[in-house]
Amino acid sequence: MHNLGQTRSVRRPNHSLHTPDAFIRTRLPGMSKASAIVHASPALGASFTQYSAEIEPGGTLGSCSFQRFFYVLEGEVHLDLDGDRHTLVKDGYAYLPQDFSHSLTAAQPSRLAVIEKRYQLLPGVSPSAPIVASESEIVGQPLMGDVDLTLRALLPDTLTFDFAVNTMTYQPGAALSMVEMHVMEHGLLMLEGGGIYRLDDAWYPVSVGDFIWMGPYCPQWFGAIGKTPAKYLIYKDWNRHPL
Ligand code: UGY
Ligand code: MN
Questions:
Q1: Which residues pair with 197 in a beta bridge?
Q2: Which of 22, 135, 136, 242 lies most in the core, judged by the most C-beta atoms within 10 Å?
């Protein structure tokens, strides 16, 4: 059944909402038996790229000449680094520094959230080694003292990293305590549940599978709605001077 020309997706100068009803798959160079839904890129105004990768067993993502972060949404993948094989399942994630040679192959039908960004060197700061971990190992912290809003930082908060990726889990009815407006941009993927997102001067119902891009200084607020927690994966540029 066609949708009579309706979608919840929007593109505005300083934010976008990308909903599954509007997703189009493409193949990026180096991919085999895999496709990408590119949610955010410089074409949108973002200074990073974020896509969802869907990979068949035996399929690969190909190499990357930028920093690459990926988080397993579903399935099982093998990550080969320096002769060591790591197996990652749902909630597993990895950080690969810029130009780091690696190979990523799906062992089962898999979906990944992938973030790629050109590294901003800082004089005197050496780039990080790769990181392979699972979100379940990370201890959550209440955000601004709110025990109903848990933040898990997936990357160390040191000057080595020029971006952060966190998960935020809202108990039913929990909300950000303020409307934020900041220089950092965000890429956000809804992992569980749903609620209302304020972006600039608009309020959007959002739920699992939706992606949001927030440009710099986009006023933003979220309140969880529903009987189960809402959770999202959120990227932000971090630890670098704005100039
Ligand atoms: O880290 C953040 O800026 C986060 N609190 N923003 C958000 O959830 N929209
Ligand atoms: Mn924010």
A1: 204, 222
A2: 135
Minimum-distance ligand to the CA of 224? Answer: 1
Spell out the domain ranges in the chain: 23-135, 138-237
Q: So what's the architecture of 23-135 in CATH?
A: Sandwich (2.60)
Distance 186 CA to ligand 2 centre (A): 7
Tokens standing for 26?
């493409």
Helix (H, G, I), strand (E, B) or coil at 80: strand
- What is the CATH code for 138-237? 2.60.120.10
The three-class DSSP label of residue 235 is strand
22's torsion region: left (phi>0), alpha (psi -120 to 50) or beta?
A: alpha
39 lines ligand 1 (CB under 6 A): no
In this chain, the answer to whether the domains covering 23-135 and 138-237 adopt an identical fold is yes
Q: What are phi and psi of 21, to 5 degrees?
A: -65, -15
Ligand 1 pocket test, candidate residues 17, 206, 234, 237, most atoms within 8 A of CB: 234
pLDDT at 142 over 90: yes
pLDDT tens-place string over residues 147-177: 999 999 999 999 999 999 999 999 999 999 9
